[in-house]
Amino acid sequence: MEPMTILTLIGTLGGMLIPPIVDFVKKKFIPASNDTPERTMGTLATTKPDVLAAYTESLGKYLDAQTRFFNRDISGVPSLWVINLRAAIRPLSVVGAFLIIGLDTIQWFKVDPSTRAALFVIIGNWLGSRIT
Predict the structure, then answer these.
(1) Where would you tag: which of 3, 23, 99, 129 has the fewest CB atoms within 10 A of its CB?
(2) Which of the pair, 34 or 19, is modelled with greater confidence?
(3) Domain locations along the chain
C-alpha cells in the first residue's frame, strides 16, 4: 500500500472517529458541573442574602464583557449576506471536496495525492462532527 494512501486512510478515519470518541469520553467519564449561576444565586439567597445583589451585578458585568470581547471586530450589525457567507463556508468546502474527489474518478482528471488526502480529511472531519 502506498504511504499516501495510508495517510489518507488515517486522516479520514481520524476525522470521522475522533469527535464522537472525545464526546463519548467527556459524557461518560468527566462529571458534569453542577455549578450554575442559578444554583449560586439560590445558595446565596438562602445563606447570604446581603451579597446576592452584588453577585447579580458582577455576573451581569461579566456576561457583558464576554459579549463585547466576542463582538470586538464587529461595528454595528453585520449584513445578512456576511452572516450567510460565514455560515456557508464549511458546507461549500465539503461539497467542493466531494466534487473534486468525484472528478478524480474520471480518467483524465487527476488530483495530487496530498491534495486528495487533504480533501478526505475535510470530508472525514465534517462527517465526524455530524456524528456527534
Answers:
(1) 3
(2) 19
(3) 3-22+34-131
